[in-house]
Write a structure and sequence with these properties.
It is a single chain. By secondary structure, this protein is α+β, with helices and mostly antiparallel strands. The chain has one domain: 3-Layer(aba) Sandwich (Rossmann fold), CATH 3.40.50.880. The chain is built from six helices and twelve strands. β1 and β2 form a beta hairpin. It starts with a helix and ends with a helix.
Length: 257
């Protein structure tokens, strides 16, 4: 079976939705838009992430609202948000007006962005053309392959002084992930914050990339932005380092310059 079709069928055959989280900070100014999927194998990750966000929201008066598509998203709509979290949502199936609004939002630093997992599912999938701008945003990469039977691995922290790693003592272990393979490393076009050590895989596989970043940021965009590849299953949140990085990333991306 075509690898791209396999990884996507759980997404395409179900209706995706958007979580819009209206985040009220203590000064009453911050709102966060969250994109997620429903009815897929990633739903348990989304559910667990929601619990974490609820715990963070306790001191910030969060409110969550669910939408079924991007039809409401335009430039005027996004003016109300300080952060977009692409929690588990692929870079396609957006309306044209939503794309235009998102590009303006990121390029001009209207707010921050935090993306996970499917945000780098870049290519031509199931009749949807690749969004070229989003590929450039992610470092000019193209999805090529993944490890379908998963592998545990050591993640190497490359920029330990970055706020996203506050409280993380060093390299950390991820029990299992699909570890996407791209046509090239995004390193030349991004600031790589962490990479996976492919020699540490606990599953025998020939699916390797070499230089393999898994957390990075694009400094060419005015918006504070971070992409975190790991985001397939809820067990990730049992890892205290991953949970800490998740929360740190939300807070840092909210502090848009």
């Amino acid at each position: 079976m075509n690898i791209k079709h396999t990884i996507l069928k759980s997404v395409i055959l179900t209706t995706a939705f958007l979580w819009i989280i209206h985040v009220q900070s203590q000064d009453g100014n911050s709102q966060i838009l969250i994109l997620a999927e429903e009815g897929t194998i990633h739903r348990p990750f989304v559910d667990e992430a929601e619990k974490i966000l609820d715990s963070v929201a306790w001191g910030h008066q969060f409110k969550m609202v669910k939408l079924s598509n991007t039809e409401l998203i335009n430039e005027e709509y996004l003016k109300d948000f300080s952060l977009i979290i692409q929690l588990d949502y692929p870079p396609y199936m957006w309306t044209e007006s939503a794309k235009v609004a998102f590009m303006d939002y990121i390029e001009n630093g209207q707010g921050g962005w935090l993306g996970f997992h499917h945000a780098t599912l870049l290519g031509d999938f199931d009749g949807y053309p690749m969004w070229d701008w989003f590929s450039k945003f992610m470092g000019g990469i193209l999805f090529e392959n993944y490890i379908p039977n998963f592998a545990g691995a050591l993640v190497h922290v490359e920029k330990s002084q970055h706020p996203v790693f506050s409280g993380v003592l060093g390299d950390f272990w991820i029990d299992k992930e699909e570890w996407y393979i791209y046509n090239k490393s995004p390193r030349a076009n991004t600031i790589v914050l962490a990479s996976v050590d492919e020699s540490s895989y606990d599953t025998s596989t020939s699916i390797k990339m070499g230089d393999h970043p898994v957390i990075w940021s694009n400094p060419e965009m005015k918006a504070n932005n971070i992409y975190i590849f790991m985001g397939h299953h809820p067990g990730l949140f049992r890892n205290p380092d991953y949970k800490r990085i998740f929360i740190n990333a939300v807070l840092w991306c909210l502090q848009n310059p």
